[in-house]
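Run log, item B.
One chain of 296 residues. Sequence copied directly from the ordering sheet:
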Amino acid sequence: MKRILLFVLTNIAVLVVLSIVFNLLAASGILGPYGNPGNLVGLLIFAALFGMGGAFISLALSKWMAVHATGARIIETPADSQEIWLKSTVERLARQAGIGSPDVAIFEAADVNAFATGMRRDKALVAVSRGLLQNMYREEAEAVLGHEITHIANGDMVTMTLLQGVLNTFVIALSRIVGSLVGQAVAGDSRQGQGMNYLAYFATSIVAQILFGILASLIVFAFSRHREFRADAGGARLAGRGKMIAALQRLDAIHRPSALPQQLKAFGIADGGGIARLFMTHPPLADRIAALQRGD
């Protein structure tokens, strides 16, 4: 989950920065009034340049952001038997998956977690929490590592970046259209109104971009949930189906929330039901276990 959330948050931040640049260009007259370069095709071209650029900047920063956000320490020379096992296991699974050996890192956190990120399949990063190493048997941890290696081998981050870039394009274009309509409505025909026009456009387009960006993130989250099933299947191939199921069952036992009253379950984000499921980057563990048991 850390991998997806960091990517989405970085993407939104980059988009806001690019949006300010975009609006400054509009103010200078380079892009025409209200940030519209004269026609819808032109606007889409500019939006695509900024939207795809923002997504790929987020991807390029993902490895650096993940390391610094979690305080992860990349293992250069293993310090003990646990680190030797971790590094050698990742290298073996990477060979099985047909990719270059990724950097391996540990971050100090009590929760059981792991993530993989990076711009290139042969220059990625796999990081695990100290809590995972302390609370899982090595067979279970191996399956989790196989899951993360599969994300890299499947090119999930690049695919997600392309999806995010397309969504960014429409977010930027639609927010400029909304901003332009509001700016024109505020300006009216008066000279004083014309002076207020750009401020209304600027404020509206920024707010609209953030709101549309959040909606676009729901599509990214849905894609992420779909890819988790594929990563589970890949982890089962690399480490063994039994190990993958055992790892998910262990996660389920560790993360199982306290029971909520029936009338509140739809609102409990940890329960994974109702509207909360739309904001989940991972499917419920019970669904993932069932998929593996069916052989999906």
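Observations after the first pass:
- The radius of gyration is 23 Å.
- Confidence is low (pLDDT under 50) at residues 28-37, 192-196, 257-272.
Flagged for discussion on Thursday.
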